[in-house]
Amino acid sequence: MEPQDRDQFDDLLDGALRQYGDAEPRPGLEGRVLANLANPELSASNRKIWSWRWSVSAGVTACVLVAVWIGVHASRDSHRSQISQTTSTRVRSSEPVGVKRSEPVRVTERPPAAATTIVPRQVRNVPRVQTRVAMRREPRLPQFPSPQPLTAQEVMLVEYVQQYPEDAKLVAKEQAEFQERIEQAEQQLGKGTNANE
Amino acid sequence: MTERALAQNVLLMTATNEDALEADVREHARLVYRIAYSVSRNHHDAEDATQETFMRVLRYRRKLDGVDDPKTWIARIAWRVAVEQAKKRPAVSLNEKEIADVTSQLYSLGKSAEEMAASSQMAAVLQSLIATLPESLRDAMRLSTIDDLAPAEIAEVLGTSEASVRSRLFRAREVLKEKLLALEGSHGTAR
Q1: Do B34 and A23 touch (CB under 8 A)?
Q2: A33–B146: do the CB atoms touch at under 8 Å?
Q3: For all residues of chain A together, what is the average pLDDT?
Q4: How near does any CA of chain B get to the CA of A185, in Å?
Q5: Dihedral of CA A123/A124/A129/A131: which sign?
Q6: pLDDT per residue over A155-166, tens digit each?
Q7: Distance linking the first and last C-alpha atoms of chain B
Q8: Residue A109: its pLDDT value, please?
Q9: Is the peptide bond preceding residue A145 cis, with omega within 30 degrees of 0?
Q10: What distance in Å separates the CA atoms of residue A44 and residue A28, rounded to the nearest whole number?
Q11: Which one of B53, B120, B143, B179 has the lowest number of neighbouring Cβ atoms within 10 Å?
Q12: Pairwise CB contact (< 8 Å): A19 & B189
């Protein structure tokens, strides 16, 4: 290869590379970029509003689901209570001595600060007694577990799950995690009280 | 400081930031576009990449205050955006046979080196030849075709030294020249 050829190819390459890098945008590029930068700020505020709405609706949905869950559990409790309907209530009314009832006796031996921790447990028992009293009025059904139509809340839940399956999954997952955390906390509390005892 | 004075300061800072951003867009939009175009070789994709680059600049503009050279910082973002985009939508280049055909047509027309360099066919050939270079040489070569970027700035964008960039450019030119010579060898002599 001769040096002259080399020079010619250098010129060719230089020219071609100059052309290669010589790209001009359509007129008004800066304006379009600035307009685009202005829009996301608007859409960001919209996104904030939407995220706020979503969080509120998710919270409301979670509350509804928790209420439904409590309702379902209450109905299950009612089925269980139907089995030992009369005998247990009679035994409890006549003979108040039991494992759970013995706990307050121990509490009285403890200092007053420990006694305050038992108060919620007594409060928690109150609605149970009320439901059991209410159950006694229901007639005993021949089949166990007795088939029952869906409650209004269960129907709402089914409709919600059919309409928004993805959201329902997320809410259910969140609820399960929340329940798990509560159970873990309760277990830890139980361990703590056992250790104290 | 009263609440009113505080609010005025916040408004002033926001306005200053927006002004600074607008100034950056006006000053560097063309450079960003050229960087993107050097990779995508497509005006539409280059404009998309330009928009995306300034969106990122907007997102990370807090960092911009601590940057010594905003031009290089923005150029680096543009380069990353363009490379990411090119992975999703690679530029169309000629295959070996097409390169040979186009080159043969060019040489058969008997044009001068300058005329050939200015032709769109030569641009297509060069684009395809650059695409065949090893990545390190290709990146340096693409950025070097942008007039606004000095070798030191290319080095900043690619995260390497200036000496390395110069060396890569030299090697890339040699490889391209060899390829052009080989193509010319089979079709006659360039005038």
Answers
A1: yes
A2: no
A3: 70
A4: 40
A5: positive
A6: 888 888 888 888
A7: 76
A8: 45
A9: yes
A10: 25
A11: B120
A12: no
